[in-house]
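I'd like us to work through together how a protein chain folds, taking it slowly. To get us started, please write out a protein record for me. Go ahead whenever you are ready, and we will take it from there:
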Amino acid sequence: MEHITSTPTVKTPAERFTGDVYLNLIEAPAEPARLAIGLVRFTPGARTNWHSHANGQTLYITDGIGLVGTRDGHVVRVSAGQTVKCPAGEEHWHGATDTTLMAHIATVVGDASGDGTTWLEPVTDEQFAQALASQTS
């Protein structure tokens, strides 16, 4: 058994995120398991770039309200206690709403190259505004 009492909080790289996003890495992908787990905290308006995962991704929302969007324009509003599964290869993004923070535990099973994530371009302000507007009625 290994008892880990704390993990450092790091600011995520600007080339993969818009806004202020913070990560506590819980588990890094390592042979033979290749499991990566992180607690990710998004400030209001912050979000990932478009990205995909070779073996999919599971997000468990721990706090706040956020959005998860896909290339086809489908957007779901998420809140604490909910889970979203993104299938292998699906281009998507996730982050907080414009007025609330959101935190989730992200779980991915990596591949031979690492965590299996392919990072793409930023979600534009227009795309983010459209996602927000699709959630109000």
About this structure: The chain has a mean pLDDT of 94. DSSP finds one helix and twelve strands in the chain.
